Amino acid sequence: MKHTIYKMKWALLLSMATVSACKSDMDFLRERPATFYTVDNAFSTSSQVDQVLVSVYSQLRDLWANPAEEGWIMVFRGNGTDMYDVPSIRRGSSFNNYGNINAENAVFFNCYSTWYQLISKANMALYAADLSHITWASDAEKAYVKAQARFFRAFAYRNLGELFGGVPLVTEIFNTPRFDFKRSTRIETYQFAIDELLAIENDLPETTTRGGRVVRGAAQHNLAELYLALGTQLKEEGRAAEATTAFTQSIAYANKVIDGGTYSLMNARFGSRRTEAQGNVYWDLFQENNVNYQDGNKECVWGLQIDYAAYRTEDGKSKLPYSRAYSPVFRDGAKDHLTGTGPDVGGRGVSFMMPTMYTRDDIYNGAFSGDMRNTDIVFRRVFRGNVASSPYFGVPIPWDVMYYGSANATTNMNNRSLCYPVSCKIATDKYTGVADGENMSNLFRDDYFIRLSETILLRAEAKQRNGDKPGAAADINLLRTRAQCTYMVSAADMDDNFNTILDERARELIYEECRWNTLLRMGGTIAVDRIRKYAYWPEAQATLTFNYNLWPIPQTVIDTNKDEPLDQNDGWKR
């Protein structure tokens, strides 16, 4: 029997060799692996599905914190808006020179494609979660994994809708290239994200034992923003009755977060440094070990996680490079009085992005000056000279000296772009890691994706858009009361261009909100009007000669989608 089998094997091998000899050399050399990974066989356990979600959390952290200090992320976080510009030493990378900004700009493609990368991961997690061979510990475990994936998909489409308008809605995994994606409308994009969140709201936990994972309040906050965005677009298209319904829903979902009993504004000192006399409650919000809801911070709805031990051992991106990226540089006239690295000058700043005069001064002018958020511990305006030859050595340097210390107007303008107040959100007086060789470039605290203050400001805007200006003012005053402001706003302050709301957002959410999302979501010419008015350098006023309220669809996307025309957004059809 063994001899017969042996002869059969040789006969089979000979026949295979004969067949192979009849084929081309290229076909003979082509590899045919016995196994290869597909979406269907790459996942064998539920924990592997969850790892897809972990990769989304990681990518979102890198998008928000920007540990690689990528220029396009600086724009996503606000560079080029009314709030931020670049200093003189970065003027070549300005995002306010519209002679250089068009649909081929890499910023737009990077932002657009990043959100679709997240959508792709969410779609993969959803597909894998339903594979028949995946075993789950419970139905609730599976439901939570799918709820997180759908949250991320909705979150991505909310951002795409606010920035780019209607975009293709991709909900499946494709095994072959496609070149025929169709744009939805902006309303359809918002509605898709709303439907996603409505479907999973109750599958998300109210709280978690550890920070970082998505909870129900994060979905409700995003529903409040999405209904507000939807209503704004409906109103712009003349659909007033539907807009009113959307604004009412926005208020209802904001109420769930604000008045639901889980979250509340922190109105008293708390956390790791609460006993220090120099601080205040707003400053407490941005100290190490104080950010997460699990740390006792009832204001944190969703936080990104930073871990110094992980940074030291395996995860070099687990950091907030805010002191380096956002703190000032003392050159030109200021160098005669102030220089170097240290907690008193904002760490080791190189200033990739700086606050405009609007952000640092205008919003605190006149009656708005008395504000906890404008105190020196929160927004440091007092710098003591540290150059021995300076007449201001060891004493506060007047801002007129730092701003206008030269007889040359160009030098003074450059210097004003490099010298500015330092927010407690980007610097600290106690830098972690100095003993280990860290150089005061990075913070090692957690940070906010969503803080209750923003939910309150969304509700204020929804109330105003729904005709309730007194209610809008009352919401803003919740924040102004906490900040111990000397002036409280009234219904008369709630102007139709939403300047009061935008100013309050700038005071409360500096270095937190994604300002482009806010300005473009508001529609009309709000974004371009404010850029023209508040941009630091004159290029914006000189080159922003057209109106827009959406970023352009990246030209690469339009060109690649060859089988279905994708219309370009208004203002960018050039």
From TrEMBL:
Residues 402-572 form the RagB/SusD domain. SUPFAM superfamilies: TPR-like. It is found in: Cell outer membrane. Residues 1-21 form the signal peptide. Residues 43-228 form the SusD-like N-terminal domain. Pfam families: SusD-like_3 (PF14322), SusD_RagB (PF07980). InterPro entries: SusD-like_N, SusD_RagB_dom, TPR-like_helical_dom_sf. Keywords: Cell outer membrane, Membrane, Signal. Belongs to the SusD family. This is RagB/SusD family nutrient uptake outer membrane protein.
